[in-house]
Amino acid sequence: MNIFNSSAIKAIFLDLDDTLYSYPPCNKAGIDAVVHHLSKHLHREREVVARALEHGREQAKAQLHHPDYDVAPSHSRLLYCQRAVEELVGKTDVALTLASEKIFWDTFLDTMDLFPDAQAFLEHAKVR
Q1: Active-site residue flag, 17
Q2: Can you say how many angstroms the Cα of residue 14 is from the centroid of all Cα atoms in its chain?
């Protein structure tokens, strides 16, 4: 890794996804974990649950869409899970929604692997 002179840098802003780690495997693992959890908990076919989760994602994005810029809440896994649970159960279930979101992020983070040299970059960039 080409080491830079960090003494002249006051701040570094990073978009973590696909900068420090690969996003797709983390997202897929999180989705798969939620689908497994909801399928087991609700005694529903995995395909039915996967479609409900995708439909929840589409609904959240459509509802929060803005023509000029990307709206951060449209990426909320909490909203995706909420919509999926409501579709599968027929009503809001806050505990199941929160548990599903936690499962997504726990699995996402457990799957995350830093790219080679990311740790060295971060350690070199930290304030001394």
Answers
A1: yes
A2: 17
Q: How far is CA 113 from CA 26, 28, 37, 39, in A?
A: 9, 14, 23, 27
Pair 107, 45: CB distance under 8 Å: no
Name the pTM for this structure.
0.84
Q: What is the pLDDT of residues 62-120, one digit of tens each?
A: 888 777 766 666 689 999 999 999 999 999 999 999 999 999 999 999 999 999 988 88
Please state, in angstroms and as integers, the Cα–Cα distance from residue 56 to each residue in 4, 49, 119, 128, following that order. 44, 10, 35, 45
From the candidates 17, 70, 113, 117, which is the catalytic residue? 17
Q: Report the DSSP beta bridge partners of residue 114.
A: 21
